[in-house]
Amino acid sequence: MKRFSLILLSILLLFSTVSCSETADKTVTQEVFSSTSETETGMPDDKWKHTAEPNNYTVEDKSTKQKLAAIPIANASMSADELRKICVDFLHLSLEFPWMPQQTFTHEDLNITREPGTVYGGIPYISTGSGNIYRAMEYYDEATGTIDMSAFLNAGLRFGNACSGGVGWAWQRVINSADLAWTWSLTHHNGCLRVGPYTYPDTVENFHEVRSESPNKYTASDVVAANGEQTMFESYALVKLADGLVHPGHVRMVTGEPSVMRNDDGTIDGEKSFLFYSDQVKYVNEVNHDRKQTDGTPYKAQGGVRVKISFSELFKTNYIPFTFGEFLGTDPVEASNATLGIESPTVTIDQLTATTLTCNYAISDVFLKVTAPDGSEKLNFPRRMTNFFTKSVDMEKEVMISAITNQLKALAGSGDHTVTLLCQISTGEMVTAYSGILTA
Asked: How many Cβ atoms from other residues are within 10 Å of residue 242's Cβ?
């Protein structure tokens, strides 16, 4: 018995010695560094891949529209954690909500066809798309879980997003301090603030996918190569939920905070340190997790949802982390504001046509409505914005009021009709840009 105890003690001591050689560092502090470096070196290989963990996600017994409505509207009194959660929840709903097409639907960007009778998850990937879940819900039949694709296609709409659109609509539930249009615009200069000790010149306005000798033309690959492995590992260690990860041509959102393993000398073990991300992707079969509806029926989500990736893989594939002023408290969340710039309680058709609609958040759709004195609706003219994250809309060129001029003239001459201009914006709100009496 004594001998057995000595053997057991030896094993425990050995285990203690081995486990102490790596320490888990899960408590990190987020910092944004503004120092610059103009060092240029060669670019690592740009290949990247996904590695997905099993997922036991089950759709709750709540409709997609109810889930969307339950995501709160951001405001300046919310904590950073609350703001970050809004972005993550919106992205995951956009990537996962179950639906079936009423008609066969395909697109040149899709590697699969969407067929009636099959449940799919989330907004499809379309490289030229500017769609979002707000627009999808207008064509979504809650009772059957189907979407009328003919209505989408006949209206010339884009039912889908590219990678930057997928995460961008989610971020813009909260963020208006950064230029989120495309992956190349996600720079510190444009409000996508560096996380951690890595640096690159503040003069870099946009990333470029093709390397140039000009010091102002960088790619994320240049940044990673110039800073080196441990500097980038330390930066990955400081990300928080809803922060971003960008490399040449693709962007992701952090949706699971990092687990950091350190070696005896304090350096980070990149193979054993990891985080989770979610993203809008084209090749659904690479990253999909099986989802199950409440009746047990499995379906595929469009994007990668809580995909586990090591720091080493992030470094090899040239990803750099960023965050936003709203999360850090340096740019307080702004209340939404949309306007035509018309103060008068009456408006002519010519005045409507000559104006520009502006908003401090991205505009998804514009609705021009006319109601009679008794409140009955006489006209509802929707226009879908096809430009990524536009905040300024020309009423003639983009809303195309000329298409309904005759209807407006008839209404203007038949009593006090009220014209109202509504905007569906990225915060999740339907805001009024103008409301007044329509005159001839």
From this structure: 29
- Beta-ladder partners of 194: 322
CA 240 to chain CA centroid, nearest Å:
15
In a domain, 5, yes or no: no
Whether residue 9 is contained in a domain is answered as no
Same domain, 123 and 213: yes
Q: What is the pLDDT of residues 358-400, one digit of tens each?
A: 999 999 989 999 999 999 999 999 888 767 788 999 998 888 8
CA 199, CA 190: separation in Å to the nearest integer?
15
Tens-place pLDDT, residues 120-171: 888 877 776 667 898 888 888 888 889 887 766 665 566 778 888 899 999 9
Q: Assign residue 191 a region: left if phi > 0, alpha if psi is -120 to 50, beta otherwise?
A: left
Reference 382, options 345, 344, 424, 342; nearest CA is 424
364 with 318, same domain?
Answer: no
What length does the chain have? Answer: 440
342 shares a domain with 319: no
Integer angstrom CA distances of residue 364 from 85, 109, 397, 423: 22, 22, 16, 7
Residues 126 and 254 in one domain: yes
Residue 310 and residue 416 share a domain: no
How many other CB atoms are found less than 10 A from the CB of residue 351? 17
Tokens of 320: 């750099």
Tokens, residue 226: 């110039």
Q: Would you call 367 helix, strand, or coil by DSSP?
A: strand
Q: Please say which residue of 328, 346, 368 terminates a domain.
A: 328
Please count the structural domains in the chain: 2
- Prediction pTM value: 0.82
